[in-house]
Amino acid sequence: MAQEQPAPYGSGIQSPEPAKKQRVRIPYLRKMKESGQKWAMLTAYDMYTAAIFEEADIPVLLVGDSASNNVFGNDSSLPVTVDELIPLVRAVSRSTHRPLIIADLPFGSYQASAKQCFKTAARFMKEGGAHAVKLEGGREMLPQVRKLVSSGIPVMAHIGFTPQAEHQLGGYRVQGRGGRAQDLLETASAFEEAGAFALLIEMIPETVATEITQSVSIPTVGIGAGRHCDAQVLVWQDMAGLRGGRLPRFVKQFANMRTLLRDAARDYMAEVEGGIFPAAEHCFEE
């Protein structure tokens, strides 16, 4: 008899796990990879988007250090702090019941040592309610990953282009071209061996990302890494068309929320200025 395989998380088809209202767990994501079924991840930074994405059956939410750019108005991810991110993680974790919530460790909060990394990650788990953390870097981060995993903290490793190292990398550049592809493959295998439960792969050639995905048993999550990763992630403001200006090549906008919100604000302003809002039905009587 053929073994029953898990259905896609958002397919509407009943799946043996996770059951209705149960939290998405790491073993389920691995089973999705084993069965060849892809899944989606989005960033979330507040209770409303988190709850909406849960309604949409998004199985994994990342409270990214991208909040630095998309919430706090910075030019890069570097300035955001642990104290700024923890309340966002808490809001997302409190507002959802099913998605796996991953917290990004911000720049400067984990690179110094495995001990520093553990203390930071523990804060995100205890104070923020995160279920896992994500960190960037190459094989120099292996001691940090081993420490977290041995301490019961699940880790997603982030390789390829790592935004926290943008100045060292010379800006937003595709990584892993030419002779550097082999280094990425070896790094991916090293993170799997160290106990990472998944790899986020950013801005590398599709062929290299495909080879990594095929060479490791843990899920790969692509952003600018082509079509053959096990999952995909986008910053939600990019996905929903909230952000204006030039977008990265790997972004697809699935809505135009910027125009929708702008038009709603203009309509509101026009009704206030015209004396239309509030109307009688918006007022209280004695």
From TrEMBL:
Primary location class: cytoplasm
EC assignment: 2.1.2.11
UniProt catalytic activity: (6R)-5,10-methylene-5,6,7,8-tetrahydrofolate + 3-methyl-2-oxobutanoate + H2O = 2-dehydropantoate + (6S)-5,6,7,8-tetrahydrofolate
Pfam families tied to this protein: Pantoate_transf (PF02548)
Entry annotated with the keyword ATP-binding: no
UniProt: 3-methyl-2-oxobutanoate binding residues: 65-66, 104, 134
Segments of this protein annotated with the region Disordered: 1-21
Record localization: Cytoplasm
Functional pathway: Cofactor biosynthesis; (R)-pantothenate biosynthesis; (R)-pantoate from 3-methyl-2-oxobutanoate: step 1/2
Residues where Mg(2+) binds: 65, 104, 136
InterPro entries attached to this UniProt entry: Pantoate_hydroxy_MeTrfase, Pyrv/PenolPyrv_kinase-like_dom, Pyrv_kinase-like_dom_sf
Cofactor (UniProt): Mg(2+)
Active site positions, chain numbering: 202 (proton acceptor)
Record note on cofactor: Binds 1 Mg(2+) ion per subunit.
Metal-binding among keywords: yes
This protein's UniProt keywords: Cytoplasm, Magnesium, Metal-binding, Pantothenate biosynthesis, Transferase
Gene3D superfamilies, sorted: Phosphoenolpyruvate-binding domains
Known partners and oligomeric status: Homodecamer; pentamer of dimers.
Family: Belongs to the PanB family.
Known role: Catalyzes the reversible reaction in which hydroxymethyl group from 5,10-methylenetetrahydrofolate is transferred onto alpha-ketoisovalerate to form ketopantoate.
Protein name (database record): 3-methyl-2-oxobutanoate hydroxymethyltransferase
Taxon lineage: Bacteria, Pseudomonadati, Pseudomonadota, Alphaproteobacteria, Acetobacterales
